[in-house]
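Bumping my old thread because nobody answered last time. Still need a sequence for this structure:
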């Protein structure tokens, strides 16, 4: 059965026309899917019984619950969703924080990028999620009604699955969808240039770039994507857009002891970021098997932050969440523990 969840208004208009239903019924279906968040076609009570039967013959809502969950001592919850027919799974992470509730969602099963420090990348690539699977993560966790923000920072490279990601963002932000402000959404990327340009041109969501080193050779040793999409080219593109007002650009920077944590790195990073009004999130490294990197200590991270601030770069140290359940940055691997 084909899922309705993940379809846009335009797609649903084509669908109902093919089924001989009134064109306006597409808007009704959107309301049931994305506003009222039903789980079955029979619940769409302003559609006639005959039209509900037409839909049910070949379609279903397509909501499905996570198969497992794991709770952290800090309140973070990791959810595991089945994906595909090969036993693979993807994870999303619910992060409550005072009056904010953020969901970190996945876009792929595994990842092609092969970043040295990322558990997801060590899995290899096993396929991209559909808009249906992406939206289902947002709607099918127990805390769905509490969410204030969504970040595309889970398993996979979002802009390697750009069509599905843009479709999901359209559903989240359209009046016929969730009707969210784009400012509630952040997309993280290593900097895939064709996808990044589309994201910048077709949406107003926040953007986060995985930087991790300002130097080409060093970044290449950590992130193979640097070869195809050098950081200087990524920020040359970003400098053409305005991030001085509501739309925010962030540089994600994991700090490793003795690797990228000295003053020269901070100076070089500030030089790259200055033309774009980007802010920096410093991130502690969370150890993963087979990787001989160590996180920088707190005093070094504080010094690095203060040095960037002195150059006019807004810089904060991100609080680690969910490390005890392998839910922190770089630790997602389709496992509950």
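Sorry it took so long. Here it is:
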């Amino acid at each position: 059965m084909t899922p309705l969840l993940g379809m846009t208004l335009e797609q649903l208009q084509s669908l109902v026309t093919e089924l001989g239903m009134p064109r306006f019924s597409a808007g009704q279906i959107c309301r049931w899917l994305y506003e009222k968040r039903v789980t079955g076609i029979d619940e769409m009570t302003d559609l006639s019984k005959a039209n509900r039967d037409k839909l049910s013959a070949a379609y279903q809502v397509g909501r499905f619950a996570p198969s497992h969950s794991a709770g952290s001592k800090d309140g973070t919850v990791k959810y595991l969703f089945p994906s595909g027919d090969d036993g693979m799974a993807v994870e999303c992470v619910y992060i409550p924080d005072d009056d904010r509730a953020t969901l970190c969602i996945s876009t792929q099963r595994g990842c092609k990028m092969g970043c040295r420090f990322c558990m997801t990348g060590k899995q290899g690539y096993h396929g991209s999620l559909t808009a249906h699977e992406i939206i289902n993560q947002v709607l099918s966790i127990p805390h769905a009604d509490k969410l204030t923000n969504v970040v595309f920072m889970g398993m996979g490279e979002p802009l390697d699955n750009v069509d599905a990601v843009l479709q999901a963002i359209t559903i989240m932000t359209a009046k016929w969808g969730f009707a969210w402000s784009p400012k509630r959404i952040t997309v993280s990327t290593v900097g895939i240039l064709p996808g990044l340009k589309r994201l910048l041109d077709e949406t107003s969501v926040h953007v986060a770039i995985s930087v991790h080193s300002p130097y080409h050779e060093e970044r290449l040793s950590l992130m193979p994507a640097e070869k195809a999409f050098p950081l200087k080219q990524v920020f040359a593109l970003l400098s053409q857009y305005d991030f001085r007002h509501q739309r925010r650009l962030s540089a994600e920077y994991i700090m490793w002891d003795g690797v990228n944590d000295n003053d020269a790195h901070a100076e070089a990073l500030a030089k790259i970021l200055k033309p774009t009004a980007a802010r920096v999130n410093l991130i502690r490294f969370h150890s993963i098997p087979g990787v001989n990197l160590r996180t920088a200590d707190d005093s070094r991270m504080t010094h690095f932050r203060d040095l960037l601030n002195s150059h006019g770069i807004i810089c904060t140290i991100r609080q680690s969440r969910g490390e005890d359940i392998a839910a922190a940055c770089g630790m997602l691997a389709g496992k509950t523990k």
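The chain has two domains: 2-60, 68-325. Let me know if any region looks off to you.
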